[in-house]
Design a protein that fits this description.
This protein is an alpha/beta fold. It is about 40% helix and about 20% strand.
Length: about 270
């Protein structure tokens, strides 16, 4: 029987003599919004980077819907249904919003490519080039794929209320809107799970208040599982079904938000008296 959801089992990761993750285990069930919290330097983003295969682990296992993620290259993770956003927005700043969402779907139509961030940029250019060639040749398959990609992009644009900026270059938008575009780009890949890395970073108080409802709406509308790294407790506590707390690379608590809030180790390490 295939075990669904995300399973993190005894994951350890060190950088030189610094242990960033120390025997961390927890699970995220399908359809949950799970919060991953902890003080700065607790290992939260390191764990995200292990899940999305930007880092190798020293030991341990990471499974998603029966797939052994540690056997995959970073470019293949999206193909098993996992998308992510970054604390620092990673968009093509000279492209419009809609162009970013079209490029964000290239993995659905082209074989995965290997390489670093420069190669990823090259893969976007390759995708655009192939679209031009296919359109010039009037290939029916290309028409269908382009139509599907554009319909998906337009659907997500409407859902996230980005219609007013869809033809504007992302580099000309506010940081808060760029965050929404990055979430939109994750959604157009039709993931089963989204990793949100500090989605509230850099947002205003008003934007922060709206973000929680957006995240819950994304879970419900697109039927995705969501794992959120966040240090804004006013955002992550109300939206999370369960939470995992890290401190100095070790898991110190796991449970519902109410249970975590009352945990003495969490109060001492992070939430304060």
């Amino acid at each position: 029987m295939v075990v669904t959801g995300l399973q993190i089992r005894e994951v350890t990761k060190s950088f030189g003599g610094i242990i960033a993750l120390d025997d961390v285990s927890f699970e995220v069930q399908p359809g949950e919004i799970a919060g991953l919290i902890g003080p700065n330097g607790a290992g939260k983003t390191t764990l995200f980077n292990c899940i999305s295969r930007l880092y190798d682990t020293d030991r341990g296992d990471i499974f998603f819907d029966g797939h052994d993620l540690l056997k995959l290259a970073a470019d293949d993770v999206v193909n098993v249904g996992i998308a992510r956003t970054f604390q620092n927005v990673e968009l093509f700043k000279t492209m419009t919003v809609i162009e970013n969402l079209l490029v964000g779907q290239h993995s659905r139509f082209l074989p995965p490519l290997r390489g670093n961030m420069l190669r990823r940029s090259a893969s976007a250019a390759t995708h655009t080039f192939l679209e031009v060639i296919a359109s010039a040749a009037r290939l029916p398959a290309a028409w269908r794929e382009e139509s599907l990609a554009r319909n998906t992009a337009e659907e997500v644009v409407r859902f996230l209320d980005l219609e007013g900026v869809k033809d504007i270059r992302t580099g000309d938008l506010s940081f808060g809107i760029q965050k929404q575009v990055e979430l939109a780009r994750a959604l157009v890949s039709r993931p089963r799970m989204i990793l949100l890395d500090e989605p509230a970073s850099g947002l205003s108080h008003q934007e922060l208040g709206q973000l929680g409802q957006v995240i819950k709406s994304v879970r419900d509308e697109f039927r995705v599982t969501i794992l959120v790294v966040e240090h804004h407790m006013e955002l992550v506590m109300p939206i999370s079904d369960r939470m995992c707390v890290l401190n100095f690379g070790r898991k110190i608590a796991e449970g519902t938000p109410a249970e975590v809030q009352k945990n003495p180790a969490v109060i001492e390490a992070y939430l304060g008296d």
